[in-house]
Amino acid sequence: MTTRDAAAPPPSSDDAPASGDAPSGEGPASRHERVADAAIGLLAERGMRGLTHRAVDEAAGLPQGSTSNYARTRAALLEAAIRRLAVREGRVLTPAEMPDGSEPGGLAEAVARAMHRHLTDHRALLVARYELALEATRRPELRECYDRTGLNAFAEPLRAMLTAAGSPDPERHARSMMSWCDGVMFTYTAGTHQGTTPDEGELRAGVEELLAGMLGGPARGNRPAQRSR
User: Fold this and answer.
1) Using CA of residue 43, residue 44, residue 48, residue 51, what is the dihedral sign?
2) For residue range 170-223, what is the model confidence (pLDDT) as tens digits?
3) DSSP string of 85-122, one letter each residue
4) Which of 148, 180, 183, 184 has the greatest count of CB atoms below 10 A from its CB?
5) Are 189 and 124 in contact (CB under 8 A)?
6) Where are the domains of the chain?
7) CATH architecture of 3-228
8) Pick from 76, 94, 90, 93: which is nearest to 32 by CA?
């Protein structure tokens, strides 16, 4: 991996509230949520080394020692960040935008929209997730929390939607879809195409091609040429 591959863009103001306020679009955050949100922001901005209880107190605008009251150990703080991250990622799409999966076109549109919003408005969430994923490879107890949270928040709903769409092997197809989405978002967030962003139509075309292979239908092949920077 090159130096450019390892670099990550700075978090946007919406993703990493420095004052401990709730992220844009949410109501007033509880103190526990402020702690977890501040931890996510620090992970995206400073990396794992920059995440300390004192730094979280400062970023959340809380009295010194507050973070320790909610997450006494570093492991507890990381687990709180993982759980909160799943909640915030789950709000990237509104309930009205979530498909039931019965129409492959609706599923492709929702997946592409969620990916595009992550890449444009919520990059800090992606960067924080990559930091946590790497740390989980070194901490078995964190890996269990990371995997369980991802399964409940993303894998099971996607598997249900693929089942409704007619997938003959929804469990395997859900793994393939998640792997494809993760790979694309990593490439444009911290990989070889960091600094560019595919538009929503391009992402949808890719999802449609993947679904066509899974479900046996033709891909539409929408190919908007423009990429925003």
Assistant:
1) negative
2) 999 999 999 999 999 999 999 999 989 999 999 999 999 999 999 986 555 444
3) HHHHHHTSS-GGG---SSSHHHHHHHHHHHHHHHHHH-
4) 184
5) no
6) 3-228
7) Orthogonal Bundle (1.10)
8) 76
